[in-house]
TrEMBL record:
Originating organism: Echinops telfairi (Lesser hedgehog tenrec)
Organism domain of life: Eukaryota
Entry keywords, A to Z: Cell membrane, G-protein coupled receptor, Membrane, Olfaction, Receptor, Sensory transduction, Transducer, Transmembrane, Transmembrane helix
Membrane topology (UniProt): Multi-pass membrane protein
InterPro entries listed in its UniProt record: GPCR_Rhodpsn, GPCR_Rhodpsn_7TM, Olfact_rcpt, OR51/52/56-like
Gene symbol of the encoding locus: LOC101650937
Cellular location(s): Cell membrane; Membrane
Entry-linked PANTHER family: OLFACTORY RECEPTOR, OLFACTORY RECEPTOR 56B1-RELATED
Domain G-protein coupled receptors family 1 profile: 43-294
Protein name: Olfactory receptor
Amino acid sequence: MSMFNGSRYQPQFFLLSGIPGMEDAHIWISIPLSIMYITAILGNSIIIHIIRKNSSLHEPQYIFLSMLAATDTGMSASTLPTVLNVFLFNHRKIEFHGCLAQMFFIHTFSSMESAILLAMAFDRFVAIRNPLRYTVVLTHSRITQLGLVAVTRGVALMAPLPILLKRLPFCKSIILSHSFCFHPDVMKLACGSIRVNVIYGLALVLCSFGVDSVFIVLSYALILTTVIGIASREGRLKALNTCVSHILTVLIFYVPLIALALIHRIGKYHSPLPHVTMSNIFLFLTPVLNPLVYSVKTKQIRNVLCRRFALKVG
């Protein structure tokens, strides 16, 4: 019982876990994980650098993309220390308050990414629905305001999570199911009533990710209505092509997120493997795939990358 202190039975630390049943292969699993982290941080940093250095990319669409890349970088940085510690060095301990801090940043960056994806959907809607007023509606000051709203909302909504967990006694176990701290995972170790935590967690999902996804779908419904009204087939294809990268990014983010939420709330499994697999897909693949999608599918980004690469090779 030395790991607990005070009447609240707060553990001094939690023990993180890797992939159940594959502990002997953790050192090998760390290799693709390390490659993914390098790809995510390097890829998103390159996107930010390219947009910052090229005045031709100082348009609303690319400014939002740089915000998305910054959020993905923050997401990767939030999980990197503990994940590589677990898989590379089998160092599983994480201090109680450090765990709560990591959990806060993971969920905050997730909420920010959702808000930025909504802003990008609005950007595509304005660009297609009313292209002549595009730069009038989405001024740099308005884009900055939308970015600040995304940050403020994420921090405000997620700040109560560690506070609500700190009030709970932990006397069941100190072993978490993931190699990072995730709110539903920490919450289930509490031996007190978690009713408030469950209700607040559900409200968070509905008020942030739920609302954002509804408005993204609504934006694309209006975009489709506008596209259908375009006379030429070439015009319709050109308009839709400008949305492909964003649609892929939305799917990469929301499909694993929805699956993870469903698994945690209605899935009953004897093995934690489904939870671990889906949470890893959500947190690791999203920051890796987003810069790859925009590098391949966005002509302007691709052209700048090709020019830079050609200059270095030459």
